[in-house]
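step=predict obj=Peptidase M20 domain-containing protein 2 n=413
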Amino acid sequence: MTLLSKPSISMEDIRNTIDTYIKGLSDELYTLNKQARLSFQEFKAQTHISDFLEQQGHSVQRGAYSLPTSLESIYGSKGRCVNFNAEYDALPGLGHACGHNLIAIASVAAYLALTHTLRKYGIDGRKLLGTPAEEDGGGKILLLNAGAYEKADLSLMIHPFVEDQFRPNGTIGSAGQSSIAIVDLIAEFRGTSAHASGNPWDGINALDALVASYNNISMLRQQIRPDERIHGCILQAPKITNAIPEYTKVKFSIRSPKMNSLKKLSQRVRHCLEAGGLATGCEVEITEDLAYADLWVNDPLCSLFKQHMNLLGVPLSQGSQSENIGGSTDMGNVSQIIPGLHAIVGIEAPKGTFPHNHAFAEAVGAKDAHLRILEAAKGMALTAWSAIVDDKVFAEIQDHFDKMRKTAENLGL
């Protein structure tokens, strides 16, 4: 596709558009932060975002792609399709300690700014997608499988982090870092109940099976690589001591840098779980959740976002595939299908704070965090604009993605 004309645009256009909505966006963000909901339960967030978009004149499909808490808003029907991912799920007991409320508002703001500018200059381009259940459930993977990204050329989002992590380098964030692939295994152990004192020899102890499996995995950790992780929790255990436990349930999260190494490690963990059942005589049933792929960093796309953010007074590092955020995201799966941006933007937080704790949950509700994330929204909108109207820019982004895919295929990643 070649555009016949490339309209001139100033950053003031997008900045002023977003500024017009700041009060509404800030109120929406405050509401989301106070009404955090877990994966697949984010109906209030979905409703508030959808209502707000409709108030701005945009149509919204709620429950898009058969996901009850998803949403989709599309502007136009032609031109390159730039997708903004709006996450809005929370953590059990911690609320928005991963800052998904800020992610949602950044994507909404970027979408509104971009569509306003596209309309002003008569350019086609689209869309916003509400992506639930990132923390648990793989919402983007489900949307990906349902065809939500089929017509998208790019997928953009930002993620808040603690700016002190970047200050030593003279920046307050990174335009792109990779993530760790992850998969969850849930094991259920079934034995036979018996009186713990009267006839314990007739019992088959499901708690012993769980403990043996846990110990097996603890020993396995000595032999895994430094960049791999295994961590778990007991989901169901006996509540009494005078009966041999007949049922227990445990969940383990397994992380490794790439999908191929994740498959190997998860198989070793599976053997540890099976061995616990074999040693105790229990039946073992293992369920595997959706695997989150490692994130592909698109260098030209990161460079473009970095340039726009630097001009907005928000200095970011370039980032690279070799840098890792230390966590996992279902955006990794999207980034291996179409070119993607998962930029890290720092906000002020108490020293020593890290996402997934109460202090970070408080930090993402601060006014300064709102303003910082709106600056990031401007950067995303400008990045999307450049990719839509500039054929050379888009070609560089696509070419880098194609090379990454070819390399991954050759290496069996």
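step=describe
Residues 36 and 243 are 39 Å apart (CA to CA).
step=end
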